[in-house]
Amino acid sequence: MPRSRRATVADLRELAGSMPGVRVEVGPKGNDVYQVSGRSFVFFRNPRPDAFDPETGQRYDDVVVLWVATEIEKQALVGDPSTPFFTTPHFDGHPSVLIRTSRIGELTRDELAEVVYDAWLARASTTAARRWLKSHGVG
Asked: Shortest CA distance to 12 belongs to which of 112, 99, 114?
């Protein structure tokens, strides 16, 4: 089986936008917010003081938030040094992980798809999630 190619920001947008029932909202500073069932599951974040370059102190301007289903899933992603996922104290207790768009290429498209699908499943209605899983031969 051929290996999946490196992921891109365009892949992230395409994957999130292709999920059933998704609406793309525009945040107050022009950032894209992908929602299902009226709840965000992927959103491009504006520069904030909690996510910054430790050497320069400059705020990251390329952070994306992706929901996860559980704290265990979050810790698995941010605790694995082979992934580009991280968190900040601002997100303690929040079911999400962060990734910089400049590091998305460290994932394959298939790996990114799995995280996006899981984010959607974590926020979609139970009925929509069940329907999507069944259509993909899961559950």
From this structure: 112
Contacts of residue 126, Cβ cutoff 8 Å, sequence gap at least 6: none
> Whose CA is closest to 44, among 109, 96, 120, 98?
98
Q: Which amino acid is at 107?
A: L
Q: Tell whether the torsion through CA atoms of 61, 51, 59 and 84 is positive or negative.
A: negative
Report the C-alpha gap between 42 and 29 in whole angstroms: 16
For 56-114, what is each residue's pLDDT tens digit?
999 999 999 999 999 999 999 999 999 999 999 999 999 999 999 999 999 999 999 99
Say what the alpha-carbon torsion angle 6, 81, 35, 27 is, to the nearest 10 degrees.
-90
Structure-token match 């580009």, residue found? 84
* Confidence band for 123, pLDDT divided at 50, 70 and 90: very high
Q: How far apart are CA 33 and CA 132, in angstroms?
A: 21
What pTM value is reported for the model?
0.93
Tokens of 119: 């984010």
